[in-house]
DNA sequence: CCTAATTTGCTCTTGCCGAGAACATAATCG
DNA sequence: CGATTATGTTCTCGGCAAGAGCAAATTAGG
């Protein structure tokens, strides 16, 4: 959003600002609030809202009266307004959902998949997407897909334990004229937190998603840092623990080897079996909760490594707050003492005065879908996106 | 720069865009180039240039003719135009300089200082700044100061080997109505590279400055990532090497302990003496260049640690290019083999296909001053800054 | 129940801005 | 030396948001 530079760009630009603000307000922002927040004249706001309503981009609904004075209205989604199609592809299943302006999510379909070969999995998903596009019609303006691995130039670079390597996902998931945007699941979970969760309003936030691997994203002013080729956030692949183990990623001593499902198994002394790592890891966490000392020791070891690495990244990146999702929440909750001790010990002295909070993500299991829908709407909530929508009717 | 939202903001906004583009063009951009690059109509450009000239913000000078057609003019600094006062405070001396639009630098004064107490050092510097402000008059619109330590909310947090702790630098350096901006030296060196050096035009770049400590900055679209409280870039204080040494910063195993002047001494087995570490480190580098095997071994050890950590941060942050300044240049140049081997070994496999280049900074010793002047001009090259300038005459 | 106060929406005028067209100008090329 | 080409200059036009004045719809208070 570079901003308007000609008088002709002002109107589209302000329409985007208004619709974006209504979207970010989660369908609760009133016209008078929006007018104030965006610094508009009341007359201008009237024109803009009328434009949005006429274009079926938004609709005003009566708002609960709060104070004295003439009542204002909520600027919310239009019943025939734009939809984002959000897809969350996990290792063993995928979910599709739609989101309207304001973020309201409707889960549409959930299906398991065999994991391999990638072309078949993505091909089936592409078919499902096409079906939904047909069924929902031109209201769907954009598709956002979350994938469980790093993505570079529209290709899934690597999902080691699914044996996906350099899969041309964008090509397979192409959906006619509807734009499809791909994102890493951890990145999108962080994006969701930044827009509608615990990182809302936070200038610089750090999000970690722990599963088998440890991924994350740095959120700057509500958007993930993208990097040169879109693969920022591989924090798990820094040698933050001083280990000498080789990592699947090709490097050595990666933090991921000490924090995650497999790390719990290793710390517990259990063999790492490809398929059931997650269930075994959850069993260890349950064991620790029930007082099994060996499980507790494994948990503490992993929590310490998690805390130390978190401190390292806080030292380097100076976030205001850190959020956790996936196994990270359990690690932090069940071993807060070990985590916090290692975290504070790893901070530079001057950061210990007011260490950034480490908190669980506010959005639960929907975070990835929410992030995918935000990604999709980000592509639409632009002057070009709105202009195309208006031109199409 | 959020962009104009009302018709009245368009003019100031476009004046800023034009002056900023002329500034970034290093005093070589012609009016026709600027018109094209900014997407302006020729008539609009004429008005804007006339405005800038009348406000003594810029001036047109004849340009060397390149092709057929009516000649155009270079939009360069005005002889009575705005100046930025740039200050580089190092551990043992400080330098002041002025920069005009376009970045042309004039060094004004260079003085040694005793290093302590901080209030006296900064007080003397404040006096010098006031003297220059008086001498140069109202042309100086902004002051930028580079300081050799982390800065948070206008205070120097910590310079361990000068024993500076929590020094209220902004308060001491206050300069009447002229705004004073403070920045970390490594951050500003990186900023200079992003604007006028080897990171120019690079979307995401990583800069490392190695001295006693290892600092740096992540540059996103030409600006340093700021963090929640302005202390991003302490990459040296991540435990990237697996060491157990305690660090002055309060954490353990910091990368800085393995990369820097003192690290060279330690690797060579020489006692670390507070005052002359830099000279001793340079002697080791010279020794290595002359073939002394123990110096060479120390150099290689440090270069390997440097390469490994660089890979870790490339994995995590996905920069397009990495630049080095300070001792980092020597470490990389004199032990390219050791550095590169460790660098590539530490990269995730998929990043090895096209590893981000690691190159020395293009600006030499002036980088910090250039960065300080850019910081100062960033505060001026805004609609508010230009409006205030125009109102003042 | 009724009036004053308050807040917001609506309408119209005004001032400003950049686009774009038509023309003028100054260089190169053959 | 005229044709060509690129750029600067001037003027008109359409569009936009600000802002003022008025209308509307609610609450507070008696």
From TrEMBL, chains A, B:
Q: Which residues form a coiled coil?
A: none
Q: Which domain of life is it from?
A: Bacteria
UniProt similarity note: Belongs to the ROK (NagC/XylR) family.
Q: State the name under which the record lists this protein.
A: ROK family transcriptional regulator
């Amino acid at each position: 959003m570079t901003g308007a530079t000609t008088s002709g760009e002002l109107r589209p630009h302000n329409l985007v600002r208004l619709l974006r603000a209504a979207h970010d307000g989660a369908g609760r922002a009133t016209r008078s609030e929006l007018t104030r927040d965006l610094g508009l004249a009341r007359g201008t706001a009237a024109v803009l809202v009328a434009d949005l309503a006429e274009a079926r981009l938004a609709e005003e609904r009566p708002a609960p009266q709060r104070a004295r004075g003439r009542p204002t209205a909520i600027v919310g989604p239009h019943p025939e307004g734009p939809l984002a199609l959000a897809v969350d592809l996990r290792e063993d299943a995928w979910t599709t959902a739609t989101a309207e302006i304001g973020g309201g999510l409707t889960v549409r379909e959930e299906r398991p998949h065999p994991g391999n070969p990638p072309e078949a999995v993505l091909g089936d998903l592409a078919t499902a997407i096409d079906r939904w596009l047909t069924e929902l019609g031109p209201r769907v303006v954009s598709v956002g897909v979350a994938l469980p691995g790093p993505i570079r130039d529209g290709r899934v670079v690597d999902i080691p334990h699914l044996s996906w390597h350099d899969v041309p996902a964008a090509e397979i998931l192409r959906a006619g004229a509807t734009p499809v945007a791909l994102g890493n699941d951890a990145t999108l979970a962080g994006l969701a937190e930044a827009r509608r969760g615990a990182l809302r309003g936070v200038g610089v936030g750090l999000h970690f998603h722990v599963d088998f691997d440890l991924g994350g994203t740095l959120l700057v002013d509500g958007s993930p840092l993208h990097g040169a080729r879109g693969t920022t956030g591989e924090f798990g692949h820094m040698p933050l623990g001083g280990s000498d183990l080789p990592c699947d990623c090709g490097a050595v001593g990666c933090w991921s080897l000490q924090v995650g499902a497999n790390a719990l198994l290793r710390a517990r002394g259990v063999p790492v079996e490809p398929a059931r790592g997650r269930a075994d890891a959850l069993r260890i966490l349950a064991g620790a909760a029930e007082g099994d000392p060996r499980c507790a020791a494994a948990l503490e070891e992993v929590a310490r490594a998690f805390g130390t690495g978190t401190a390292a990244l806080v030292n380097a990146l100076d976030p205001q707050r850190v959020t956790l999702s996936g196994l990270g929440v359990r690690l932090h909750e069940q071993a807060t003492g070990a985590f916090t001790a290692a975290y504070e010990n790893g901070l530079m002295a001057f950061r210990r005065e007011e260490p950034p909070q480490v908190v669980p993500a506010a959005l639960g299991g929907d975070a990835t879908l929410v992030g995918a829908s935000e990604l999709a709407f980000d592509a639409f909530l632009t002057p070009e996106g709105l202009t195309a929508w208006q031109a199409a009717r």
